[in-house]
Specification:
The protein has about 325 residues and is α+β, with helices and mostly antiparallel strands. It contains 10 helices and 10 strands. The longest helix has about 35 residues. It binds adenosine-5'-triphosphate (ATP) and magnesium ion (MG).
Length: about 325
Amino acid sequence: MSDLRSLEVDPDLLLAFERGLDPRHPERSKIPARILGYGEISTVFEIQAPGLEGLACKRLPIFRSLEELEAYKGIYLEYNRVLQEEVGLRLPRYGFACLVDDAGYPLFYILQERLPPESIGNRALHLLSLPDVCRLVEQTLRELEKVWGYNRRQQEIQVALDGQISNWSIAGFDPERPALGDEITLLYMDTSTPLFRVRGTEQLNPELFLRSAPSFLAWVLRLLYLKDVVNRYYDLRLVVVDLIANMYKEQRPDLVPPLTELANRFFSGEAAYLEERPLTVAEVRAYYREDAMIWSAYLAARKLDRFLHARLLRRRYPYVLPERIRR
Ligand SMILES: Nc1ncnc2c1ncn2[C@@H]1O[C@H](COP(=O)(O)OP(=O)(O)OP(=O)(O)O)[C@@H](O)[C@H]1O
Ligand SMILES: [Mg+2]
């Protein structure tokens, strides 16, 4: 398994990228880069420079000290190990790079083998037939069952996962012939939020999530939401609600009723031992409405925060924000 961790790059290549990066206008970077995805704490780049070909580089500008970065690194590597070796998920080949930018800020880059964009669940969804979409989601549920089955089998380590369809890539997917074979192999990509508890203790410092939050909101988020946000990734039922509710965001509301039914069959069938209550379409819809509202308000607050930093305080704002998220 060790070759899975084998991705290595010269950190100077990333430092050169960092020097030419304008977080406000990443497309104008001196070293050309394409954004593959936005996260709350990371931005995923494809950087067009010799030595970085074929990689997805996830940039995490959230650390205040090297100790924090080192702690994150250890947790990130352990999360990958547990998912792969203990839970039995498949991950893309991965690695990491640590650097300190010219202003003295430490940065962590997650490196992953870059997977074909059409193979990623939220893209494949639009190419597949309805029965194949159902099989894709069913396979996703089976992967989730591996995680929660593991959590059930032993008490020492409890692992959280974000089950959204955009976090999975279908191995060997051919967009020219968009059909699923008899066996579906999914790769899990979203390892930048390594949440797991060892004997009840959260390993990752959840404060890191608040780093990218506007400072004028951080205290209220800490007080009201942080625990809920973290806890929900440990709750299989909520993770599945989130997975299905995302179909609204993917502009496929038609999928919500059949997928809700599918999840309920799964909960009462092969995953019955996990004892989850059935879902309803109304609950999935209500969840989505609330979630969409919170995230768009939150993005607006981050933009205000960026404005405050850049224009008023004239301070560095290291995060790359999406222009607009289609909901
Ligand atoms: N290895 C990869 N190859 C190709 N595209 C990727 C890869 N990893 C991520 N992406 C793209 O970037 C998107 C976001 O990545 P990912 O899920 O890892 O982070 P996130 O959801 O933004 O997470 P977080 O909020 O935890 O930072 C993915 O949905 C996918 O479209
Ligand atoms: Mg994701």
